[in-house]
């Protein structure tokens, strides 16, 4: 198993740099969507053993998960996790209204999918360009459930075992409202090796 403790210092720094670039691009896209200035904290990106992930994303209430399949040189899935209150706030900023006491109607689900598509797309583009490998995204799907159940849903879609997960956590601020965003990238062992090999090539290793 490969985990964050076995990465070289260069691989750790490169993953962090990818996180910085990717989330910076995603922030620009988010700012354009909500037509507001978006402030962002320094993102924290790690490669973690799968077994540690549920505790990091666990929430007492159901959360919104938007799932996008990775295509190209990396096989797997990107998962954007948002709390219900954060999702409703973003929807309200984009379309002008949203009832926080209710679930998500068809229009709101469409907005969340587009939000994840744009943010995930800009992030994956940055990752692809930085590593000089080809990675694309499929059309997103959305789930509203407990975080453990959503992660189990993603793992059920994987055709191969997943040992490790790229975990990106950051905090956005819009209109003094804080948004705690989490992006998880689930890949099989071969795809993870492709990405780490691409990082090594950056310094000719």
Described by strand count, sense and barrel closure, the largest sheet is: 8 strands, antiparallel
Oligomer: single chain
Q: Figure out the total of helices.
A: 6
What's the number of domains?
1
Strand content: 25-35%
CATH fold category name: Chemotaxis protein chec
CA-CA gap between termini: 21 Å
* Helix and strand element order: HEEHEEHHEEHEEH
CATH class: Alpha Beta
Characteristic key phrases:
205 residues; alpha+beta; Chemotaxis protein chec; 6 helices; disordered N terminus
Task: Tell me briefly what this model is.
With 205 residues, the protein is α+β, with helices and mostly antiparallel strands.
Describe this entry's structure for a reader.
The longest helix is centred in the N-terminal third of the chain and has 26 residues. The chain has 205 residues and is an alpha+beta fold. Strands 1, 2, 3, 4, 5, 6, 7 and 8 form an eight-stranded antiparallel β-sheet that branches. Helix content is 45%, strand content 27%. The chain has a single domain, classed as Chemotaxis protein chec, CATH 3.40.1550.
What are the SSEs and their pairings?
Elements: H1 9-34, E1 39-40, E2 44-49, H2 53-57, E3 63-72, E4 76-83, H3 84-95, H4 106-131, E5 135-137, E6 141-145, H5 147-157, E7 164-174, E8 177-187, H6 189-201
Antiparallel strand pairs: 1-7, 2-7, 3-4, 3-5, 3-6, 4-8, 7-8
